[in-house]
Design goal:
Length: 205
């Protein structure tokens, strides 16, 4: 190519690019939807009555190649029950400064307590704000759920929860929780027979 043709060829590339479809994304004003199975922020799931699925087994922490998960399990008691079985995750943290969103922890979880959401906005200015706590990771309450701790569904055991036999919180669970905390039950209803017993014993399974 001659010295004269070189710049012309260069401008040719620019000229062609002017008619190509623009790929610029106007983030954060316009957020592009992710693929349905995108690996985003984690979530700790609940059973349909609001009890937690995590049993504090630490398998997710052992599976993590980046050492990003910290779990401390603890025993449930009749007075304070967070999950249907013997143990629950008392402390649960994921460090998003380390996490590479690979999903190995989700594969390792035996109870499907841990899954990933489509949320990808995980940037912040401080280390503390990027270490997500159990309270931040725990799924919100859906219809029919009552926040843990509360009693297991009467007549059901842990296996029944995994068989899908529990579909919502047992009638009166909200009242049990409020009474055991010494709070006014939902709707401000007047005390009924058995409330005092519940308050003294706490919420029992
Ligand atoms: S997604 Fe991968 S790196 Fe992140 S916590 Fe799970 S196993 Fe660890
Ligand atoms: S999230 Fe799953 S694997 Fe991790 S501690 Fe809880 S039950 Fe175990």
């Amino acid at each position: 190519m001659s010295d004269f043709q070189n710049p012309v060829a260069g401008f040719g590339v620019t000229f062609k690019a002017m008619f190509k479809k623009r790929l610029t994304e106007q983030y954060p004003e316009v957020k592009k939807p992710t693929a349905p199975r995108f690996h985003g922020r984690h979530q700790l799931n609940r059973h349909p009555d609001g009890l937690e699925k995590c049993v504090g087994c630490e398998l997710c922490a052992w599976a993590c190649p980046a050492d990003a998960i910290y779990v401390e399990g603890a025993d449930n008691t009749d007075e304070e029950r967070y999950s249907p079985g013997e143990r629950y995750g008392r402390v649960y943290q994921i460090n998003y400064l380390r996490c590479i969103l690979c999903g190995l922890c989700v594969e390792a979880c035996p109870t499907r307590a841990l899954t990933m959401t489509n949320e990808y906005e995980l940037a912040d200015r401080t280390r503390e704000s990027l270490i997500y706590t159990k309270e931040e990771l725990l799924a919100g309450l859906e219809e029919g759920m009552v926040d843990s701790p509360h009693a297991i569904y009467p007549g059901m055991d842990e296996q029944d929860y995994y068989r899908g036999l529990v579909t919502e919180a047992a009638p009166g669970t909200q009242r049990q929780v409020a009474v055991s905390k010494g709070e006014v039950p939902p709707g401000g209803a007047a005390p009924v027979a058995g409330d005092e017993e519940l308050r003294q014993k706490g919420v029992q399974s």
